[in-house]
Design brief:
The complex is a heterodimer of chains A (about 290) and B (about 350). By secondary structure, chain A is of the alpha/beta class. Chain A has a single domain (about 10-275), classed as Thiamin diphosphate (ThDP)-binding fold, Pyr/PP domains (Rossmann fold), CATH 3.40.50. Helices cover about 40% and strands about 10% of the residues of chain A. The longest helix of chain A is centred in the N-terminal third of the chain and has 22 residues, at about 10-30. The radius of gyration of chain A is 18 Å and the shape is globular. Chain B has helices at about 5-10, 40-50, 70-75, 85-100, 110-115, 115-125, 155-160, 170-180, 230-240, 260-270, 285-295, 315-325, 330-340, and strands at about 55-60, 80, 100-110, 130-135, 165-170, 190, 215, 220-225, 250, 255, 275-280, 300-305. In chain B, helix 11 links the parallel strand 11 and strand 12 (about 300-305). The termini of chain B are far apart. The chains are: A alpha/beta (about 290), B alpha/beta (about 350). At the A-B interface, helix 5 and helix 6 of A face helix 4 and helix 6 of B.
Chain lengths: ~290, ~350
């Protein structure tokens, strides 16, 4: 197993930049893609795969590896480059992204993507998959963790709460929710479409330990990871990551227009240059 | 409590409305009870799990009704009751399967197959996870519990899903054979049961190949292709017709998907007519699947018998089977009408 516990913040920041730029590049191949949902979780994906998870890319079937489920499957476009970068498959394969016969679609297929722990796309399923993986770990005497990335709009799905109840009941202390709390679903702000706050209190009331941190701040994310308990029993763990949908590209930040989009021409070049410059302080649009 | 009333109360637990031909029975509390066939699901899985550590079992608050509590009693650490949360149970089973386990998840067919259809497709069949979704109390065997608790659409809904094996258990010994064969069967499976205490067809555990029908009786005048609860009725019909000089082939078409096309082709070429019989909506199930094969073959007289395409009446199961002619007298009458129409 590769020891990545001492990876620098600079490396993690660089990999988050890489995730965003690859998302923009791959979207141009497809002609449409989920930019903003991927940008909001870029720091979390970077911290998870380049620092936190116990994985061995040369052995994707290792039975005691940590698992990751991208339950908000539309952000797979940010995960594929990470898996390729870590060596699960040849990055050249991503040139086929979404083209006829490609292994790599908008929503990820575990039977085609090496290193992917489970397929996703139908929102609301991933946490149940994680419950099953955590129960299997306990039943087989393994101590891996299972991380599940949920979208904030996604948790309106009833199956999420079936899974939340059961994880508390089964005391799955090695199951971790990463909630990408980016504030927007497709039709608007979550609090206007279907409100979920106070979401941390809701998880806590179902028997979960909850942390709530800035999901674009690596020190905060890594600090939350360090707080996760060892062992496979106890309260399941939820990390609510307060994020900005579209973070990193000014025109997309908290915009409803970029859930699915396609940048072309000068817009593409401008956005790539903006991403290359790195994250700038977030300045919300003043209220009208 | 009168015997009749007691039987009604026990429909939920899987009785046979007073059938008396069976032995080796248990009551709902696990003690032997004369006159009732055993509901073997839990005990068979428990036996298999003694030597196979991959086997785990889950249910959704119906461990007594489907007898998975017989498994729990032997392997409590490999049994998970998810409460009344079927979607979570089925998807979690897929997660377990991705980690090397072989989960058997059981609840009423109305909830495992119909409520859980998307989870079966997206989380079990599509990623080819070896999850065995078991639908007990299928068809209209829940009787007066009503349409919410009937599953007369499950075969039609699930047989159109790729990479999903759909199989119907005929009786207790047949279920044992299915379960034993299922452990190493690739991909996801839906296993359809009646009330779990179904009329006996197989006095011993039969040789079984998933995807290959079992020919139970030879004949040239008519083939009855039946599945699940209707195999017994088909055999009884063949016996009744034999007294009139009509030789009937009886086929237990247990696997609905993938379908045994060769057996249907044989019936079409070797026998004079084909009748399908199923406890399922007349559209979409076994009869439709057989028709899809026959449409490519030289014409043979064909009729499909099942439940009409509407929500059925409520009533005690035995009364429903009689009303919809899905018992031995009913199937016999349907067969006679069919043969008269083509004579």
């Amino acid at each position: 197993m590769t020891d990545r516990s001492n990876v620098s913040l600079a490396v993690l920041e660089d990999r988050a930049k890489f995730i965003r730029k690859e998302t923009v590049r791959l979207t141009r191949i497809a002609g449409a893609g989920h930019y903003s949902s991927t940008f909001s979780c870029a720091e979390t994906l970077s911290a998870l795969y380049y620092s936190q998870m116990r994985i061995e890319p040369s052995n994707p079937g290792w039975d005691n590896r940590d698992r990751f489920i991208m339950s908000k499957g539309h952000a797979a476009i940010g995960l594929y480059p990470v898996l390729a970068d870590l060596g699960y498959f040849d990055p050249e394969e991503l040139e086929t992204y979404t083209r006829l016969g490609s292994k790599y679609g908008d929503h990820p297929d575990m039977k085609k993507v090496r290193g992917l722990d489970f397929s996703s796309g139908s929102l609301g399923h991933g946490l149940s998959v994680g419950v099953g993986m955590a129960l299997a770990g306990r039943a087989t005497g393994r101590d891996y963790r299972t991380y599940v990335m949920l979208g904030d709009g996604e948790i309106s799905e009833g199956q999420i709460w079936e899974a939340v109840i059961s994880a508390g009941h089964f005391k799955l202390g090695h199951l971790v929710i990463l909630l990408d709390r980016n504030g927007l679903c497709i039709d608007g702000h979550t609090e206007e479409i279907m409100s979920i706050e106070p979401v941390h209190e809701r998880f806590a009331s179902f028997g979960w330990d909850v942390q709530r941190v800035d999901g674009h701040n690596f020190e905060a994310i890594l600090g939350a990871f360090r707080n996760l308990p060892e062992g496979t029993t106890g309260k399941p763990q939820a990390i609510v990551l307060d994020t900005v949908k579209g973070r990193g590209v000014k025109r997309m930040e908290m915009s409803l227009d970029w859930h699915v989009g396609n940048l072309v021409g000068e817009d593409y070049d401008e956005v790539m240059a903006e991403l290359e410059a790195g994250l700038q302080p977030y300045e919300p649009e003043p209220a009208e | 409590m009168s015997t009749e009333m007691q039987n009604e109360a026990e429909i939920f637990r899987g009785t046979t409305d007073g059938e008396t031909r069976f032995k080796d029975a248990r009551s709902v509390r696990g003690t032997p009870k004369a006159g009732m066939p055993a509901f073997v699901l839990g005990e068979e899985l428990a036996e298999m799990a003694r030597t196979d550590p991959r086997i785990v079992v889950a249910t959704a608050d119906l461990a007594s009704a489907n007898r998975t509590n017989d498994f729990k009693a032997v392997h409590p650490d490999r049994f998970f009751d998810f409460g009344i949360a079927e979607k979570n149970m089925i998807t979690a089973a897929a997660g377990m399967a991705s980690c090397g386990l072989v989960p058997y998840v059981a609840t009423f067919a109305s909830f495992s197959a119909i409520l859980g259809a998307e989870q079966i497709r997206t989380d079990c069949a599509y990623p080819r996870m070896p999850v065995r979704v078991i639908g007990t109390h299928s068809g209209m065997s829940m009787g007066f519990y009503g349409t919410s608790h009937h599953a007369l659409e499950d075969l039609g809904m699930l047989r159109v899903m790729a990479d999903l094996t759909v199989i119907c258990a005929t009786d207790a010994n047949h279920l044992r054979a299915i379960l034993r064969k299922s452990v190493d069967h690739p991909g996801a499976m839906y296993i359809r049961l009646g009330r779990g205490r179904d009329p006996e067809v197989y006095p011993t555990v039969p040789e079984l190949e998933i995807g290959k029908a079992i020919r139970l009786r030879e004949g040239k005048d008519l083939t009855i292709i039946a599945t699940g609860s209707q195999v017994r009725a088909a055999l009884d019909t063949a016996e009744a017709l034999a007294a009139e000089g009509i030789e009937t082939r009886v086929v237990d078409m247990h696997t609905i998907s993938p379908l045994d096309r060769a057996e249907i082709e044989a019936a079409a070429s070797e026998t004079a007519a084909i009748l399908t019989v199923e406890e399922h909506n007349i559209t979409g199930g076994l009869g439709t699947a057989v028709a899809e094969v026959l449409v490519d073959l030289p014409r043979v007289p064909f009729r499909k018998h099942g439940v009409p395409d509407r929500y059925v009446e409520i009533g005690p199961p035995a009364a429903l089977y009689a009303h919809y002619r899905l018992d031995a007298p009913g199937v016999t009458a349907v067969a006679r009408e069919f043969l008269a129409a083509i004579a």
